[in-house]
């Protein structure tokens, strides 16, 4: 049987030691500590045999932050959240999302960010902290920012690759720059983690973490297998007021 793998990627703007193996910099890595990314949530939307997999982040005992396009509003769709996916010894918990998701909306603009409310509060998982927006991610590769991405997917490029058993891993990439995407519909609300000529994997809806805080929600991309190029993220600081008002 083939299973997706849950990864924790570490992107650093400073060059890593040249002795680090190329395999580890591209698709390999080490297992994360059991205390890392415990707030990661696995989301599965189903309608009959059709399934959509996304990631999410527990930011409140009853609220998950994720990408808006992970939700399907058409009749027949059901979305379930699996909590405590890491570490494996935590004992997974699953809840079906009963309430209509709260999606950030503005006139004629699509914002790929939403909040899902759990019916039962989660009290035994350490939450992801909201960002310190006085200390935002920089736009230059020399900034020294370190960003972690958590996601589920294959370990190599291409849709026919064998997938591995789910696990959380960490990987170092040689360089990072965080830059605004100027031609985006909402350029001031979207950022990009540019990993040039690197093979990456991520989970749409998952978190971009910096200093233990969630600064971005991964949007777009290919959730089933790795992809090269920029990783677009929704800038959480631009939605902080909405998040706090919704979850209070």
TrEMBL record:
Signal peptide interval: 1-15
InterPro entries referenced in this protein's UniProt entry, alphabetically: Peptidase_S1_PA, Peptidase_S1_PA_chymotrypsin, Peptidase_S1A, Trypsin_dom, TRYPSIN_HIS
Chain positions covered by the region annotation Disordered: 138-157
Organism lineage: Eukaryota, Metazoa, Chordata, Craniata, Vertebrata
The keyword Disulfide bond appears for this protein: yes
Stated name of the protein: Peptidase S1 domain-containing protein
GO biological process: proteolysis
Pfam families: Trypsin
Organism of this sequence: Poecilia formosa
SUPFAM superfamilies given in the database record: Trypsin-like serine proteases
Domain Peptidase S1: 26-248
UniProt keyword terms in alphabetical order: Disulfide bond, Signal
Gene Ontology molecular function, alphabetical: serine-type endopeptidase activity
